[in-house]
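Record 1 of the preview.
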Amino acid sequence: MSIELTTRSIGREVTYFNNFVEQSVDCDITLPDYCPDIMRILKCTLYNSVVNSKIIGDRATADGNVKIRIVYADDKNRIFCYDHDFPFSRYAELNKTYDNATVVCRAKTEYANCRAVSKRRIDVHAVVSLHFRVAATDTQGIISDACGDGIQLRKKGIEIDDVTAVVTKCFELSQVENVGENNAGIGKVIDVSASPVLTETRIIKGKILLKGELCMRVIYNADDKENETCCLNCNLPFNEIAEANVTDGCRVDVSLIVNNANAEPKTDNDGDYRYMNLGGEVCAKITAYSPQSIKVVSDAYSTDVEIETAYQQMEFSKFIHYCNDTVMCKQTLDVSAVGGQKLYSCVAGKPDCICTFEDDKMYLKGKLPVSLIMLDADGAPVFCEREADFEYNRTIDGTGRLSCTPQLEIGGCSCNLSSDGKADFRAEICLNMNVFSTVSEKVLVSLSVPEGSAKKNKKASLILCFTSGNESLWDIARRYDTTVEDIMHENELSTDYVENKTMLMIPVK
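->
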């Protein structure tokens, strides 16, 4: 007695580690001599960059820098800015060593407290959370077919996306931009934001081509006008090749992370600051999928011998929809409490959202942090923070459990103050996401004949069965150790399901 099994492997992305590690930022900053005294701190912003992340043994490590940007006013109500770098190196303990795994680390400011100890000293206490995610491709073996010893299999066809590769590709971008002859010279950079936009992915000879641009927005002081800012918008194009185990039929999912973005003023031939050195590092996390149609075995029995089986509840995912859209965020913000009369700068932070699915709809609700520096009626700078709400929904045609990880980036923002203490805020949010459908199936993973198993003892060659209706022929055949085909042939049935009460003749071999 022997059973021949046919197995196949299914590729999947396995997350081995997905956790946060806190990095404290404690600084006692003394202003250099060229900076004026502090009268009032307006804003403290932390720009977090992960310079390098890798796996060393059983540790995931990340090296990076926190740029602390202090915007403050002096005793003449002039606005100034000072930057301080806080380098860090942090690691997360893994439970074992993982071969061929990739690590992606994201840094996020949890909170930041800043106060002026004196006119020359600033005390900063903050916490940055480092999100480590270690993942790799793995294979799961399943039984797709079996024969011998009267084995009967109940199979189900499903559509899946077989994961073939999980890789990361980090690259640096740089560009020098002329602010223009008619514009004011560059004083001090107040804010730098960068949003990655992927315009094309293509598979060429087993490699992945990534095309897109890094959209940068820089707000800086005008050097020849007090308390006025200028805004520089610039796109840094990229064209990168990522090595991966892919074929032409694969589908590629790309998530872009900005590890670092910076802007530094640069002088022209006359010594005037009319150029801006722009730079940034982008990390692309790439997952390649191969669409497959497979059959899984959900039940098995033998008409001849006793068998031992083991089943496992497994999840199978398939890409069903790609969304590339623009979400408009419009809101009137109440800023009357701070008495702002003139806008100095408006900065939109990283959008945060929750995505849910209901019936055939996807609903996305989120908040956008907004930081405003304004001048009051006396010309004194004031600062306030508000949140703008945004919503988005669309129809999604899919079955199973739907899921997605939205990627939201600020495409641009504007703000106008009105005389009644209101600020009309408007932002364009670029949305990119892949929607997946996941189904859970009971799958046969082990089948064998116990040692010493004897043939089943069948006492009759024909059995009369009275069905109660709404029964599957599979369940009936399993009960009497026969086959679905034999029951259908004996009773001249055209389907494998009995709807009404009836009598069936069950042939037993």
